[in-house]
Automatic annotation (TrEMBL):
<protein>
    <submittedName>
        <fullName>LAFE_0G18404g1_1</fullName>
    </submittedName>
</protein>
<dbReference type="InterPro" id="IPR013079">
    <property type="entry name" value="6Phosfructo_kin"/>
</dbReference>
<dbReference type="InterPro" id="IPR027417">
    <property type="entry name" value="P-loop_NTPase"/>
</dbReference>
<dbReference type="GO" id="GO:0005829">
    <property type="term" value="C:cytosol"/>
</dbReference>
<dbReference type="GO" id="GO:0006003">
    <property type="term" value="P:fructose 2,6-bisphosphate metabolic process"/>
</dbReference>
<keyword id="KW-0067">ATP-binding</keyword>
<keyword id="KW-0547">Nucleotide-binding</keyword>
<dbReference type="GO" id="GO:0004331">
    <property type="term" value="F:fructose-2,6-bisphosphate 2-phosphatase activity"/>
</dbReference>
<dbReference type="InterPro" id="IPR003094">
    <property type="entry name" value="6Pfruct_kin"/>
</dbReference>
<dbReference type="Pfam" id="PF01591">
    <property type="entry name" value="6PF2K"/>
</dbReference>
<dbReference type="GO" id="GO:0006000">
    <property type="term" value="P:fructose metabolic process"/>
</dbReference>
<dbReference type="GO" id="GO:0003873">
    <property type="term" value="F:6-phosphofructo-2-kinase activity"/>
</dbReference>
<dbReference type="GO" id="GO:0005524">
    <property type="term" value="F:ATP binding"/>
</dbReference>
<feature type="domain" description="6-phosphofructo-2-kinase">
    <location>
        <begin position="63"/>
        <end position="280"/>
    </location>
</feature>
Amino acid sequence: MGLDEALTSGSTSTSTNSLFSLNHRNSYSSIIDQYYEEQDSPVESFHETTALTINYPRRQRGLSISSNSSEKLVVILVGLPAGGKSTISNHLIQFLSHNTSTQHMRCKVFNAGQVRRKLSCRGRPMALANNSSEDLFNPKNTQKKEKYAKITLKELFSELSSDLCDVAIFDATNSTERRRSFLFHEMRVFNSDISHNFHITPLVLQVSSVDHAFVRYNIHNKTFNQDYFDKPYEFAVRDFARRLSHYYSQFVPFTKLEFDRHVAEGKFIEEDRGLFWFSIVNAGLSNSSQLNASHFPEQSSPMIEELVRVIESFVDSYAEVYGFKYIEKAKSFINGESTERDQGRAGQSSDVPYLATLNRIVDDEYFRELNWTSSN
């Protein structure tokens, strides 16, 4: 069975779709348009000049931030849905809070998915799309999806500027070079604003699960989040598998070439304080040391250097400190030994054959049609 056929077949999916459709409720497109009408702040595509890109007064060349000025770190997460980004970002906050040199820092996650659910669901179950024009995750609706990320980024900048946090984690897929270029540009614009008392240093943390067993387990867990908790398990798996395939078709991993390019571009301002890149693959089970890079310019502050050192320790020890629990749970589930989540869900008994249903939908053919190998 082909990918499109597998994701759309089955009487359960067809009949269930009508129960959660957008026929009688606003679509994602109308919801996000309504939001910007209320805010009176339209936002264009990421590759264009936007309302979010403010023309700040530029710092004079030759002047640099004084040694006693405050620094902020923004962790840019990169990775596909169900790759473990949100879990790892929460673990990072725990790790920083237990380290003596960073425990005083205020950390916060800015999650684009949560912003989307907050604006679109508004306390109600999520309505799913009837067609591709309403499907937020279809590539043709990229600009609509980007707007939720922009709202999240705007909130992040606001809290940094107001000195409400020191380490901001931007939790979104950030899955294309264009999106990441936009983020780096906006941070440089923020840093060049003479009214800001704080300077942002970016750190890319790429998170991925490339093992097929881990991907299946992650999809299983996603079916219990706010998007799907009220919907039948099989329908939720099919819908999220479709969503993941859309993201995968556009995903471009962060690479050393991209890192080097942004380091070079960052030097057009005098306040360049560095750029850093780390990766966690398969919950730390796979070696990702070759996917790390650091740029410490002369202006790099001792605070940023120490913070990056602690995060590097977090990445290196992730499997032993946090990842092993996930790995054991995933293995137990895939081997059919786990009863986790068997407490049932809305409208279903507790004896749903989760593993059999999952393996039937997210089968080997699913990965072949995506050209998704375990070594990606």
